[in-house]
Amino acid sequence: MTMISPDVATRLKPDTIAVVKLIYEDLCNLQPGQNVLIISDARTPDYIVSTFQGMAFAMDADAITIECRIPQGGATYQPGSKWPAMLEAAAMEADLIVDMAVGYAEFVVKAIRNGARVICPGDGIGGPFMDDVLIRTMLHTDVHAVRRHADQIADCFTGARTCTVMTGDDELVIDLTDVDGESGCGFLWDPDKNEWKSNWTFLPPAQPGILVPKGRGTGSINVDGTLLYHPIYHEKPDSPIRLTFEDGRLIRIGGDRILAARLEAWLEELDDDGAYYGPVHLNIGNNPNAMLTQSQEWERVYGSITCGMGDFSLLGQLMPGIDPDILNRSTVHWDWTVLQPRILLDDRVFADRGRIFCE
Description:
Radius of gyration: 19 Å
Strand order of the largest sheet: 15-14-12-6-5-19-20-21
Distance between the termini: 33 Å
Order of helices and strands: HEHEHEHEHHEEEEEEEEEEEHEEHEEEE
Mean pLDDT: 91
Largest sheet: 8 strands, antiparallel
Strand content: 25-35%
Shape: globular
Number of strands: 21
Low-confidence stretches: none
Structural class: alpha+beta
């Protein structure tokens, strides 16, 4: 997987101003006088952070920025990261948190319970070319059409009792009893209904899907897309990795010899049984302009599915109506992606060969 970016210099792209305006107005419903906390670290260029702060000023909101140290280990180890008390105190005063560094954390949960709403423009970890990603996947895409489609997809999951993911001769079957779909559309505010839609979301949009209670998911699947387990970057196997599950626990790793061996060794070294459990979430990408890059946009590639492993207890608390006792706990969260699986919801074809059928 490559870093695809036409320009990572210090130059502010004029289009970045337009996409940040879109985020604040249409997705966040930012109002004059509100308190905005912008969290970043050295992975995201200063000019991107300044654009979020400056646009908030232009909309008569109060905005401050806090730059944290880069968390050790990267996205995979977010559930176990520690954050300074000063950041927690600032979060408790915020109406809106623009998070380009943290992702999942207990202080974010506390801030939401205190009334804050959170949007993560880089899916919680920012990045050196986040502006290029947001311009391509939001400004150059009809994000409202993506949102409405994501809502339809979430309804399809809500109405189903079984999800079967087929790759070649292998099938992974997930029990969806009493599981509701989540739109994962990137919007805190619903501009069609003029009402709040969520209190926490991530960008770019969208990856609607489900949170999977612990213990569900049996069968095998061939992973041909991104594998996020390494602490620094994402990998794509040269040939598919075959993962076998029994009652929601990974019991066998095969396929791509080199990457399978690395993954197996990494899991053994963790000495964390919770890291073997999953899928803890299953989401399907529906953004036509998302690409396979080192940005988290790879989770939004149209027609692909991304499944999470390990911890989901923190993220589960960020979503209303979720019983935290049914979600898995671990010190890590890792993901794998299948690019164009065939998916059945009950006995109906829901997706196949990169197309989604949810009308």
